[in-house]
Design brief:
By secondary structure, the protein is an all-alpha fold. It has one domain. The chain is built from three helices and no strands. α1 crosses α2, α1 crosses α3 and α2 runs antiparallel to α3. The protein is elongated. About 20% of the residues are buried.
């Protein structure tokens, strides 16, 4: 039996957009919200979407570190 596989791989712009949206809506909890969705999809057996949400969480954490470094003058 053949079934169509949907590619849910986000583009870098999509990851940045979702990261910005979560940061605007959830502030310092944004990465935790993304991790929640990553875990939700992982438990549900959807590795592609779990991976995508993990990428969003990583992006948020990276942006946070960049802001901290910029504020310290590094």
């Amino acid at each position: 039996m053949w079934s169509e596989q949907i590619d849910v791989t986000p583009t870098p712009n999509e990851v940045d957009s979702v990261a910005a949206l979560l940061e605007g809506e959830h502030g310092i909890l944004a990465a935790d919200v993304a991790e929640f969705f990553a875990t939700h999809y992982s438990i549900g057996g959807d590795a592609g979407r779990s991976w995508a949400w993990t990428g969003v969480a990583d992006c948020i954490r990276e942006r946070e570190q960049q802001r901290i470094s910029a504020n310290r003058g590094w």
